Amino acid sequence: MTTSLRSWYWLAIGVYSGILAGILFWPSLPLPSWPSSHIAWNMYASVHGVCAQMHNTTIAGQQLPLCARNTGIYGAMTLSMLVMLIAGRHRYTQYGAKVYTILLLVPIVFLGIDGLNSLSVDIGLTPLYQPQNWLRMVTGSLAGIAIAPFFIPTLNRVLRNNGSNHAMIGRWWELVGLWAIALGYAALTIAGPSWVYWPIAIISWVGIVGILLISNTFAVAVAAGYDQRKISHLAELVKPFLVATLITAIELGIMAWLRFGFEASGFVR
Question: What is the pTM assigned to this prediction?
């Protein structure tokens, strides 16, 4: 790592230390859903513009920052990202056999069906079946677990010069393993023992903010020509990463401000 890159690296550490401090210590008044934690409220407020937060779920009486479906989607996505990194597949460029790809996408169809069914109730229509938060969690988790096996190879194909020509999902038991993780995560959230509140709150919040940040980093990197000169290490993306951090913060801030404003005005509930 060059001296210049190292300076940017330490700047990134400083910026994210400040963001963490803001989440932990920014003064706010806990609401009834968060009787003992302003931290959870800060997490909730920061993504208020990008998460529906309508069909919410609680653990030990405390509301999670994200709604049930998004808790499933983004928590499972974060877990799948971690699994792929631990398995050493962060440089893989292939998605996998077509059958595994199709099977990974099937839960997204069920997610769409359940989402439309839930929407029908919200707009006053008769649903096919009564929406339930546990269904939102299960369909969301099974859909979210599929994000990493598609997202990581796409990034590697475009930005890396040292990608590994291997498939993210190469065997049937790997697919079953991802589904098991998704269902286990959903079951743990639905059962709701008090000790899982913070792990689930954190990984789901990191997921929804992280996917926006990674997408912005990818866009900034491509705009800056990194797709032409390629990278060997993720640390080389520190400059577009910091620019994307600013963009993400502005996006989250503006959208949350607008939604809180609309709610205060009575335009939306």
Answer: 0.92
